[in-house]
Structure to design on (500 residues):
């Protein structure tokens, strides 16, 4: 099968990979580049745990053709912390008990990160809308919603 | 066409664990060369907090700081036997096994400390901060790390312990058939407020209010987390999830998360929870285990709320819009029960 060279930025670093025709972004991130933070859940775009940001917009990596991210900026949970300092979302998820098994967490974090960059002071409804494509089987969502609202506050405090 | 409010109630007695074969779980505890303690289990943490709770229980029993304890649940092939993480048995069964193992390890730890301090082990106590000292004489002291090191490198002891918990065999009374297969019950009561749309048959859950009696809440935040998440799953079982097709045959059944319905983040309702603590006599530090019962009362409560709202008695789960509409039709219209 034809292999195409693809260059893109992953969490700020230039990456150059050869991808098989039809390869999805999730496989390229996990198998090709070793970034295991986006998870493989359903593999058909219905669970949301593979959510990554492409040019700041949440996108399902399992349904994204790897070739389409050429020249773009891809962000995953691995790129959330600032050095040793965790992202406000990560702190808030821990302190609000927003994870039990943790499998949905990377997708939730990225969906929330996109929201907070777009809307630094979101309403509860906007948070619900932002994570409506992400399935969680353990928490009942409430702790996740609380964590995202809390993270928005922490983020604003950190910025001021 | 209207939306009808309804309230449903359910109360449950929930047996902790199983009784088959004594429902055993084992634990092994040993100290490492760095003076930290390892708890080996085959009891898997699914996110419910098995590792956190057994760590707390081991630290409490050993008399060492919780940060000096690790819990390894890595491999059920090589670890001590456990029946598994189900039936709300983890805290109770595994916790008791951990206590037994930690007590045995603590006894060796105190013997090792006694030999170093040249006193009797019976005169020693731990301060929970990493020190062992003579009762009434805190100056005569050795750290748990130093005692573990001395045991391993000087005295030739393993600071270790074995634990198993097995519930007593429940005999059957030949006359009455009476038996006591369960040693520990937890309890809960839950009220659910809903609105039912008599045109679409859809249910909106407005509020959950519950009280759970879980023995001692060994880790209150984890208990609350489980109760919140479990109630969501109860709602989901009650009114959403089914592998059966809605219409009209198997070919229309759900095949993926697009069609296998679950309440999303926009469908959840506020949940007031009261956690009542009545320590269980045979539970580890009084703990029972919230586990499955955090989902259970939601199902009957929601079916009762539908009856209250529109007078339709549904006895097959899930309570789908179709069943509600068929019931309303059979009754010749919605028949709210109203408040008395």
């Amino acid at each position: 099968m034809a292999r195409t060279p693809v260059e893109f930025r992953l969490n700020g670093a230039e990456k150059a990979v050869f991808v098989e025709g039809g390869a999805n972004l999730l496989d390229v991130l996990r198998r090709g580049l070793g970034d295991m933070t986006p998870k493989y859940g359903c593999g058909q775009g219905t669970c949301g745990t593979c959510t990554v940001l492409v040019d700041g917009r949440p996108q399902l990596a399992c349904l994204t053709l790897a070739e389409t991210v050429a020249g773009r900026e891809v962000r995953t949970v691995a790129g959330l912390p600032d050095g040793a300092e965790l992202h406000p979302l990560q702190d808030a998820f821990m302190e609000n008990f927003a994870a039990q098994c943790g499998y949905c967490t990377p997708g939730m974090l990225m969906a929330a990160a996109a929201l907070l960059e777009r809307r630094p002071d979101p309403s509860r409804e906007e948070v619900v809308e932002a994570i409506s494509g992400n399935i969680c089987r353990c928490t009942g969502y409430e702790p996740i919603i609380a964590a995202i609202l809390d993270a928005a506050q922490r983020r604003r405090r950190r910025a001021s | 066409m209207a939306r009808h409010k309804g309230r449903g109630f359910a109360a449950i007695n929930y047996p902790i664990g199983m009784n088959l074969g004594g429902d055993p779980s084992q634990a092994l505890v040993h100290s490492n060369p760095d003076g930290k303690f390892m708890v080996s289990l085959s009891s898997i943490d699914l996110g419910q907090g098995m590792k956190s709770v057994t760590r707390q229980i081991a630290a409490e029993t050993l008399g060492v700081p919780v940060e000096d304890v690790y819990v390894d649940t890595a491999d059920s092939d090589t670890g001590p036997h456990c029946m598994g993480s189900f039936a709300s048995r983890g805290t109770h069964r595994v916790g008791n096994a951990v206590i037994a193992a930690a007590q045995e390890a603590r006894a060796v730890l105190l013997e090792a400390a006694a030999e170093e301090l040249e006193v009797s082990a019976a005169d020693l106590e731990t301060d929970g901060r990493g020190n062992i000292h003579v009762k009434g004489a805190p100056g005569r002291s050795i750290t748990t790390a130093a005692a573990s090191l001395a045991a391993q490198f000087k005295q030739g002891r393993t600071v270790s312990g074995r634990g198993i918990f097995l519930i007593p065999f429940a005999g059957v009374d030949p006359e009455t058939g009476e038996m006591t297969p369960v040693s520990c019950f937890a309890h809960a009561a839950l009220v659910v407020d809903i609105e039912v749309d008599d045109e679409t048959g859809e249910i909106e859950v407005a509020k959950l209010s519950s009280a759970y009696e879980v023995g001692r809440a060994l880790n209150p935040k984890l208990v609350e987390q489980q109760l919140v998440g479990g109630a969501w799953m109860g709602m989901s079982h009650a009114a959403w999830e089914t592998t059966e097709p809605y219409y009209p045959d198997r070919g229309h059944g759900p095949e993926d998360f697009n069609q296998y319905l679950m309440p999303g983040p926009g469908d959840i309702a506020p949940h007031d929870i009261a956690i009542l603590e009545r320590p269980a006599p045979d539970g580890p530090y009084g703990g029972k285990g919230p586990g499955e019962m955090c989902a259970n009362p939601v199902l009957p409560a929601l079916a009762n709320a539908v009856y209250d709202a529109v007078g339709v008695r549904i006895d097959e789960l899930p309570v789908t819009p179709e069943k509600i509409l068929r019931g309303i039709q059979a009754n010749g219209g919605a028949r709210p029960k109203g408040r008395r």
The helical segments of chain A are 25-32, 88-95, 105-118, 124-130, 142-159. Residues 3-79 of chain A form a domain with the Ubiquitin-like (UB roll) fold (CATH 3.10.20.30). Chain A touches chain B at residues 42, 44, 46-47, 97, 99-102, 127-129, 131-132, 135, 137-145 (CB under 8 Å).
